[in-house]
Write the structure tokens for this entry.
Amino acid sequence: MDLDDFRERASGEHFLVVVSTSRADGSVQSSVVNAGVMDHPVHGTPIVGLVAAGGSVKLANLRARPWITVTVRAGWRWTTVEGSTEIAGPDDPLTGVLDVPALLRDVFRAAGGTHDDWAEYDATMARERRAAVLIQPRRVYGV
């Protein structure tokens, strides 16, 4: 299993995945988001990226415990990516990322998104203090 398997399955499922993060008490918080495979904006290695709302529980969890599990399912086949995370957004500067709006657009496109008005998209992302979550794969597995 590798990120190509993840990408293939995600593309067939509108890039909808389940992400799981850890709460402070050790329990698991999960939600459904769009995510896609892309190159890291600083060092160019393949990663999984997603966009998270500034006030989301998943983002708060990742700020405190930067590890995530992402699973995509297509029929009876699935691929899971586990990895460490970096956050790049208005409240989370990431060294080497100079243009957060461009990064958010790149993540959105990697997750199958399109938009008719990128200026409107950028304004919404800024207003909602959205951030890019960049997942460095440490384990990839599935069937």
